[in-house]
């Protein structure tokens, strides 16, 4: 018996490596990226309701739409269409608890879409398999499939074609949240502007990083973290340079802008070091707040369902 309501926990992502290629005919950039799912999570609860609605609580909830603009609601519609259901008969109440920074480059909206897909597949007893859910996820957004899948994965295309990467070790991160978000298309636009007429440096291939992941040594991994969007995020938010420096000064092995930013992620040697770095960074006055996280963690999971694959 599926319990109702159903709560799904969904992870944030950090891009350990992100290469942004040329703009494609459809306007998207060709990407090659290595994602890692982190223990910074949103929780999405789905329950039947007479009238559909969305409520959002937690960090940054005020700037999350509670109408059809919410990516999780788009997931409800897409799943209903694929499953031959009317999303209003009966309705669905979506309750989102944000732990992932909003517009922070950690794919929080995508995580909520993945949570809604996963939760409603169970609530409506659609019994769609992983591949079918991944297929719907890819239509919803580049980062939605990874939020479903979790772990560590290589993403190509817009980021939606995923190949899991074996990463047996747990890595320890400190996450520095900025006072407000960055608009992802604006960051890509800034990258295009910076690249215009120049042969600006692009991150090299991800192969050495993939090898470092098999060794499990965070020092090796730290040396190979790379993000083509970092220069653009720093250009739009020059104070991020100070944040990145402060994390390394506090003892992190390396710091990187997460995806399109402005959140910064710092890789630490172990869990104790992460706690130390977090304490020092939060006193340095270079960010709004800090969190400690570990990765990789699984993708979308029903809370209380410890036997899910
Ligand atoms: P990206 O995946 O593009 O890197 P991000 O992680 O930087 O995105 P999100 O937190 O996904 O940013 O939010 C981007 C914008 O999407 C927000 O400004 C918000 O208005 C809108 N949005 C829609 N649905 C959600 C949701 N469920 N949670 C957060 N933001 C949402």
From TrEMBL:
Binding site for ATP: 101-111
InterPro entries noted in UniProt: GHMP_kinase_C_dom, GHMP_kinase_C_sf, GHMP_kinase_N_dom, IspE, Ribosomal_Su5_D2-typ_SF, Ribsml_uS5_D2-typ_fold_subgr
Pathway: Isoprenoid biosynthesis; isopentenyl diphosphate biosynthesis via DXP pathway; isopentenyl diphosphate from 1-deoxy-D-xylulose 5-phosphate: step 3/6
Enzyme class: transferase
Catalytic residues (positions): 13, 143
Molecular-function GO term, any one: ATP binding
Keyword set, alphabetical order: ATP-binding, Isoprene biosynthesis, Kinase, Nucleotide-binding, Transferase
Domain GHMP kinase N-terminal: 70-151
Positions of the GHMP kinase C-terminal domain: 209-284
Reactions that this protein is recorded to catalyse: 4-CDP-2-C-methyl-D-erythritol + ATP = 4-CDP-2-C-methyl-D-erythritol 2-phosphate + ADP + H(+)
A GO biological process held by the record: isopentenyl diphosphate biosynthetic process, methylerythritol 4-phosphate pathway
EC identifiers of the protein: 2.7.1.148
Keyword Nucleotide-binding (UniProt): yes
HAMAP family in alphabetical order: IspE (MF_00061)
Family: Belongs to the GHMP kinase family. IspE subfamily.
Biological role stated in the UniProt entry: Catalyzes the phosphorylation of the position 2 hydroxy group of 4-diphosphocytidyl-2C-methyl-D-erythritol.
NCBIfam families named in the record: ispE, PRK03188.1
Name assigned to this protein: 4-diphosphocytidyl-2-C-methyl-D-erythritol kinase
Taxonomic lineage from the root: Bacteria, Bacillati, Actinomycetota, Actinomycetes, Pseudonocardiales
């Amino acid at each position: 018996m599926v319990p109702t309501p159903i709560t799904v926990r969904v992870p944030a992502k950090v891009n350990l490596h992100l290469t942004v290629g040329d703009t494609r005919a459809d306007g998207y950039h060709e990407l090659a990226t290595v994602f890692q799912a982190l223990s910074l999570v949103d929780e999405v609860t789905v329950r039947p309701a007479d009238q559909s609605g969305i409520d959002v609580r937690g960090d940054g909830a005020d700037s999350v739409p509670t109408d059809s603009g919410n990516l999780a609601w788009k997931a409800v519609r897409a799943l209903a269409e694929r499953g031959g259901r009317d999303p209003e008969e009966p309705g669905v109440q979506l309750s989102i608890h944000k732990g992932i920074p909003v517009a922070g480059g950690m794919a929080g909206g995508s995580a909520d879409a993945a949570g809604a897909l996963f939760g409603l597949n169970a609530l409506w007893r659609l019994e769609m398999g992983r591949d079918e859910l991944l297929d719907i996820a890819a239509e919803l957004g580049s980062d939605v499939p990874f939020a479903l899948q979790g772990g560590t994965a290589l993403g190509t295309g817009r980021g939606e074609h995923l190949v899991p990467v074996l990463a047996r070790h747990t890595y320890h991160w400190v996450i520095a949240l900025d006072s407000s978000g960055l608009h992802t298309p604006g960051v890509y636009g800034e990258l295009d502007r910076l690249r215009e007429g120049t042969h600006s440096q692009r991150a090299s291939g991800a192969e050495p990083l993939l090898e470092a992941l098999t060794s499990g040594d965070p020092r090796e991994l730290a040396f190979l973290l790379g993000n083509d969007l970092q220069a653009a995020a720093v250009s739009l938010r020059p104070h991020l340079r100070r944040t990145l420096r402060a994390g390394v000064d506090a003892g992190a092995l390396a710091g990187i802008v997460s995806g399109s930013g402005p959140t910064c992620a710092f890789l630490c040697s172990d869990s104790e070091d992460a706690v130390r770095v977090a304490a020092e960074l939060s006193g340095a006055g270079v960010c709004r707040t800090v969190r400690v996280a570990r990765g990789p963690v699984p993708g979308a999971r029903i809370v209380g369902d410890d036997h899910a694959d």
